Amino acid sequence: MLTFFIRRIVQFIPTVLVVSFIIFILLNVMPGDAALLSGNPRGGIDPKVVAALRAKWGLDDPLYIRYFRYLGNLAHGDLGISFRQNRNVSDILKVRLPVTFRLAGLAMLFASIAGVSLGFLSAIYQGSAIDSVAMVGAVAGMSVPNFWLGLMLMYLFGALWRVLPTSGYGGGQFSYMILPAFTLGVRYMALLARISRSSVLEIVYQDYIKTARSKGLAEWTVRYRHIFRNALIPVVTVIGLQFGGMLASAVVVETVFSLPGIGSLLVQSIFNRDIPVLQGSILVIVVTFLIVNLMVDLVYGYIDPRIQYD
Predict the structure, then answer these.
(1) Measured between alpha carbons, how far is residue 188 from residues 63, 108, 287, 290 in Å?
(2) For residue 80, is it left (φ>0), alpha (ψ between -120 and 50) or beta?
């Protein structure tokens, strides 16, 4: 396993290089000029201020020089200086990332527990009322837009019933994360419910399940040790793959609930043409996605001891 782990870490390097190149090119060729935005405080553009800003940020240099300078800084862990805030991007992300990771973590925890439980029960009681209700709920969860669900929850729990806060971070209080986490997690809960159901149904009629029951094993033992654990492998794969999508979906949820996370930071940086913040934020999301997928691969060995790492 150690060899596998080291090999995967080494494989991160070319992936990050390719991603950094694509991000840099796309962000630096899109329309708009960050210097013009920052040099226009009250409607008037001072050409000297704009020229000074372009020289300070190196925007007058050729694109390839700027990329290699960015790559050199990145090799030393320097994500650059924010055009708009005049602060290290790393310092900005240190404040914003915990909010997004907490939101995504709570949303994925809710989606995993609720989705896998519903899918398992739906498959075990196939054709029953439980199955029908769970699958109707899954289809509805997949169909409802995040922003609409968030607004409805804000109206019900904030304006109508007044039981939960509807905006802000509240210094990290759990009550402020309930509605955003539920809003973000519903779609993934529905997806995991459907995948869990399909995975269990593929296993429940296998010969070795019939053999386990014929040996007189308790039903809960058959369901947990032989059905549930074997059905988890494709589900864990989906959880790892969807975590990156969840970080991307956090942009909408954080905007709706006014959370100071990396999602809302991305939106602000796009409008401000704050290229260093955009580059750093997207790169951190990509690296997080790679790490989560590596962790998923390692979890396979715990779920199914038969899996060997070469």
Answers:
(1) 40, 8, 21, 19
(2) left
Taken as a whole, the chain contains a residue count of: 310
Q: How far apart are CA 206 and CA 139, in angstroms?
A: 27
DSSP letter string, 157-219: IIIIS--S--SS-GGG-THHHHHHHHHHHHHHHHHHHHHHHHHHHHHHTSHHHHHHHHTT--H
Residue written as tokens 């769970």? Answer: 134
* pTM metric for this prediction: 0.86
Residue 221 clears pLDDT 60, i.e. is over it = yes
Other C-beta atoms closer than 10 Å to the C-beta of 36 total 14
Residue 102 has pLDDT above 60, yes or no: yes
Q: Cβ(272)–Cβ(84) under 8 Å?
A: yes
Q: Residue ranges per domain, the chain?
A: 18-75, 96-303
Q: CA-based diameter of the chain, in Å?
A: 85
Q: How far apart are CA 285 and CA 167, in angstroms?
A: 24
The structure tokens listed for 111 are 């989606």
For the stretch 117-127, pLDDT in tens is: 999 989 988 88
pLDDT tens across 188-197, in order? 999 999 999 9
Q: Is the pLDDT of residue 230 over 70?
A: yes
Q: Which residues contact 149 (CB under 8 A, 6 or more apart)?
A: 183, 186
SS3 82: coil
Q: Which CATH class is domain 96-303?
A: mainly alpha
Arithmetic mean of pLDDT over the chain: 86
Tell me: pLDDT of 132 over 60.
Answer: yes
